[in-house]
Amino acid sequence: MSALLSLLSRVRDPGAGTPRRCAAPGFTLVELLIALAMVALITLLLFSGLRVGTRAWDLVDATAERVGAVRLAEGFLVRALTQARPVSLTFDGALVPVFAGDVRRVEFAAPLSEHVGVPGLYVLRLEVEGAGRRGDLILTRWLMHPEVLEGKLDGVPKWEPLKNDSRALAGVPLDQDAAAGAFGRTLLLEGMDGLVINYYGVLAGESDPDWHQEWLEQPRPPDLIRIHLTTVNQTWPDLIVALPSPRA
């Protein structure tokens, strides 16, 4: 009788007496969508950080390039001005001191090495050329040789004292080395917004030294020169250079 009852129970429930199978492990559709959304968010954050880092690197690189260009220009000016010589040249039958300047331009005599041109003593002129906020700081040089100063060589314009030469060099090409380097025009710094030059010393007929906006037709150079550079992107600290004392 008991065996019959057991057989009937198995017929009613075929799974009785056998172990049940568990559902296969896996992800639901909702879990999959959440995972995809998180991956997309993480990817977006990574690319945003990479873009910000790239822009920051480019900005640092551009800033370093601008600072380097200004430092190179200032370094050259310091070396040249600290070697300035109290020289006078004959122009139109009169003896004219080479050193002259105003708030926008300055001219002086200083030696240059063979890395710049023909080694020797040069007349150096520093000025900003160009209109608006995109001027360029240009250095023009003449070797102190009669043929060079008088413009008798091909490609070399005649030298005239600073007060007489009103932008006559604006049409002369830049990066030009004429007469085997005896004359040249070099771009020292681009993107200039302003240049202000002042001179400290005792003017002829005065007794006390002071800062002046012009130093024209003076028998001796000033004691100090102050150059204030302003580029399109930044205002730089004043560059103050002590000029060598003229020999008695």
Could you characterize what this model shows?
- The chain is α+β, with helices and mostly antiparallel strands and 248 residues long.
- Helix content is 27%, strand content 30%.
- It contains 3 helices and 11 strands; from the N terminus they run H-H-E-E-E-E-E-E-H-E-E-E-E-E.
- The protein has helices at 2-12, 29-81, 146-149, and strands at 88-91, 94-97, 100-101, 105-112, 120-129, 135-143, 176-178, 183-201, 210-212, 224-231, 239-242.
- The strands form 2 sheets. Strands 3, 4, 5, 6, 7, 8, 9, 10 and 11 form a 9-stranded antiparallel β-sheet that branches. A two-stranded antiparallel sheet has the order 1-2.
- The longest helix is centred in the first third of the chain and has 53 residues, at 29-81.
- The mean pLDDT is 81.
Mean pLDDT: 81
Give the domain tally: 1
Low-confidence stretches: none
Ends distance: 144 Å
Number of helices: 3
> What proportion strand?
25-35%
- Strand elements, count: 11
**Helix proportion of residues, in percent?**
25-40%
Shape, per Cα inertia axes: elongated
Q: Helices and strands, in N-to-C order?
A: HHEEEEEEHEEEEE
- Rg from Cα: 39 Å
Main β-sheet description? 9 strands, antiparallel
Helix/strand/pairing category: alpha+beta
Main attributes of the structure:
248 residues, alpha+beta, 9-stranded antiparallel β-sheet, two-stranded antiparallel sheet, 3 helices, 11 strands, elongated
Topology:
Layout: H1 2-12, H2 29-81, E1 88-91, E2 94-97, E3 100-101, E4 105-112, E5 120-129, E6 135-143, H3 146-149, E7 176-178, E8 183-201, E9 210-212, E10 224-231, E11 239-242
Antiparallel strand pairs: 1-2, 3-4, 4-5, 5-6, 6-8, 7-8, 8-9, 8-10, 10-11
